[in-house]
Write a structure and sequence with these properties.
Largest sheet: 6 strands, mixed
Number of domains: 3
Order of helices and strands: HHHHHHHHEEHEHEHHEEEHEHEHEEE
Oligomer: single chain
Strand order of the largest sheet: 1-12-2-3-4-5
Length: 553
């Protein structure tokens, strides 16, 4: 009991851990905290795993069948989608660091040349646009947004020169509404704009007071964009005036400094390099990889669902048997396994299987277990088309493990009513000259109804060829011991969804196809349906027509 609990705990840990990983990559890494997308994604990451668990357990818990159907489609489809989301996201981890870092390195290599054009790395605008800042600002006032916009747009010095000349001759323009100025000393005449450009006549020396703002005479002025609520801004770079860097015309030691808003306030070069390094770049890469993962997973699941719903294909295999008489040469057995009628696959699927089988005109139909996932009460109508199998020597049935989960005794009676003969640890002689035996599934041991090879094969004539129907391939070693020539099985689904075949190979000697064990050949069908998600990837459903061949023919 302790081992079972540990296994359950491990499975649930892996299950919810995988969902956390998907939430991290598809929700947390690509959305903004507190946003509607983040909240919706988090809610889905909680609801979907619970919905899948409900779909898996509802049948065992006796939930009403309509509710089982309502839970099955979204719950099972999410399981399939989740599998391929995890696999695709894990694959993207290999390229994620490269996509984040390589463009940033390229941007660093290009930075020395880019700064001279637009200041993409956060530097100030090029010097070519600076001379226009002083005149325009003097004409429109210190707080004029229009003047600041002209400079930010890179107004050329030539275009600004006429404005500067006019501003030097005309009286100072009225202050813009809302412009904040330091308080002025009474009785002190308003200081005219002393900023000059190469084309402006020098302004006579005007007495200055400690409280009067004064604009230095600079040929180059920094970005003069100002914020409405800022009285002064940081000191501009050194002007090309005096050797010690003191701006021309600023001969008062205590004069306030002329200022402009930092160039980083508007970031004229921001966004020129795409997402750029840092958080924005990581989010951009995460979104690209998340979109890729969703597209790959959704496309894979959609194709796998179509593979199941269109019905099984027909596969033909020829198996030579040493003891098969010439009269049985070419005998055709249609092997049908793992139909799994249930909440997702119903009557229409059963009819597709019947049509495929009858089109092969078999001599015998062998249904080798896992016919249903539910009770006779719920699935009896869905199984009705199976009564229309057409074969010269009839149809035979053996139980699978899912019959024991669904009421094996009731289903044995039901398939008998549908015209199939159950082989419950028993054997029949086929008129063409070989024995056909069938054993119960090994899951029946938990219900006192397991396989009994001695009863089915113990007293037979070993000179005759024997074909055994057994749901699980694991009993092949018993078949070898009892001299069986050919065992027909299912159970593995061929893995159903890649990479499921690797897991199936851990528990079964053969996952699909024909293999030999001593003097016994084992053929394992991939099955005609699907368990859980109605999806198959890398293991398409099939009905196999096994054609027996005599060496004497």
């Amino acid at each position: 009991m302790l081992v079972v609990l540990l296994v359950v705990a491990l499975v649930l840990t892996v299950y919810f851990g995988a969902h956390w990983y998907v939430w991290r990559r598809l929700v947390r890494d690509v959305t903004r905290p507190g946003g509607a997308a983040r909240r919706a994604g988090t809610a889905a990451a909680v609801v979907l795993p619970l919905l899948s668990l409900a779909a898996l357990t509802s049948g065992r818990l006796g939930v009403p069948f309509p509710l089982q159907q309502a839970l099955a489609w979204p719950g099972f489809m999410w399981l399939a989608l989740m599998l391929y989301l995890v696999l695709t996201l894990l694959a993207t981890e290999l390229v994620r660091p490269l996509l984040v870092r390589l463009p940033a390195r390229g941007a660093r290599r290009a930075r020395p040349g880019a700064g001279a054009e637009a200041g993409a790395a956060g530097t100030e605008p090029a010097a070519a646009g600076r001379p226009a800042a002083g005149p325009v600002a003097g004409a429109a006032g210190a707080g004029s947004a229009v003047a600041a916009g002209s400079v930010a747009a890179g107004t050329a010095p030539a275009a600004a020169a006429p404005v500067a000349a006019t501003a030097a001759k005309a009286p100072e323009a009225p202050e813009a509404v809302g412009t904040l100025e330091p308080p002025k000393t009474p009785d002190t005449p308003k200081t005219p704009d002393t900023r000059t450009t190469p084309d402006t006549r020098e302004t006579p020396d005007i007495p200055k007071t400690p409280d009067t703002r004064e604009t230095p005479d600079t040929r180059e002025t920094p970005d003069t964009r100002e914020t409405p609520d800022t009285r002064t801004t940081p000191e501009p770079p050194k002007a090309t005036g005096t050797p010690d860097g003191t701006p021309e015309g600023s001969d008062a030691p205590g004069a306030p400094e002329t200022s402009a808003a930092p160039a980083t306030a508007a970031r004229p070069g921001a966004g020129l390099t795409g997402a750029g390094p840092g958080m924005a770049r990581r989010r951009f890469v995460s979104r690209v990889l998340a979109g890729t993962a969703v597209a790959v997973a959704a496309g894979t699941v959609a194709g796998g669902t179509h593979s199941v719903l269109r019905g099984p294909s027909v596969k033909r295999v020829t198996v030579p048997l040493a003891k098969l008489p010439r009269s049985a040469h070419g005998y055709r057995i249609a092997v049908v396994s793992d139909v799994h009628l249930g909440p997702t696959l119903g009557r229409a699927h059963a009819q597709r299987i019947v049509d495929a089988v009858n089109s092969t005109q078999p001599d015998l139909v062998a249904v080798v277990g896992d016919l249903v996932d539910g009770s006779v009460e719920n699935l009896g109508p869905a199984a009705e088309p199976l009564a229309r199998f057409r074969a010269r020597h009839g149809s035979f049935f053996v139980t699978g493990n899912h019959e024991y989960f669904s009421g094996a005794e009731q289903w044995v009676d039901e398939v008998r009513d549908l015209g199939m003969r159950p082989l419950r640890n028993e054997r029949v002689e086929i008129a063409s000259g070989f024995d056909l035996a069938g054993v119960n599934d090994v899951a029946g041991e938990n219900y006192g109804d397991g396989p009994d090879f001695a009863r089915a094969l113990g007293d037979r004539d070993r000179a005759r060829a024997a074909v055994l129907l057994a749901h699980q391939p694991v009993v092949v070693h018993d078949a070898v011991r009892y001299g069986v020539d050919l065992q027909l099985s299912g159970h593995t689904h061929g893995g159903q969804m890649w990479p499921g075949e690797f897991l199936a190979g851990l528990a079964n000697p053969t996952v699909e196809g024909l293999e030999r064990y001593g003097d016994t050949q084992l053929y394992v069908s991939r099955g005609a349906g699907a368990w859980g998600p109605p999806v198959r990837v890398g293991a398409p459903s099939d009905i196999t027509v096994v054609q027996l061949a005599s060496r004497d023919a």
